[in-house]
Amino acid sequence: MKFARMLLAAIAACLVSMSALADEMPVFKLVMKDGVFTPARLVVPAGKKFKVEVINAGKTPAEFESTPLRKEKVLGPGAESFLVFQPLAPGEYKFFDEFHMKTGQGVIVAK
Hints:
Layout: H1 2-24, E1 27-33, E2 36-38, E3 41-44, E4 50-56, E5 62-66, E6 71-75, E7 80-85, E8 91-96, E9 105-110
Parallel strand pairs: 1-4, 3-9
Antiparallel strand pairs: 1-2, 4-7, 5-6, 8-9
């Protein structure tokens, strides 16, 4: 019985620690609407893992794509999803919407 209680306590402590770590990851929202990113410039902390929630508020398909970051996410109209990024070195990382190349341009700035 004593071992079972200790095991349960250890598991609970791990779950609390994991929850605290998840809460520390910054989250940024990016809305895509018919070829326009809002905001078109995301400033994120350098050296820290982060999450970008992407929302297609438009009436056409949209795509978040970044060649330097090796990320790609296609969303149908009204769809929502997210991307998790590993820590970035300071700098600028371009992204685009392949469905709307003329207007769908943006940049993630890691500072």
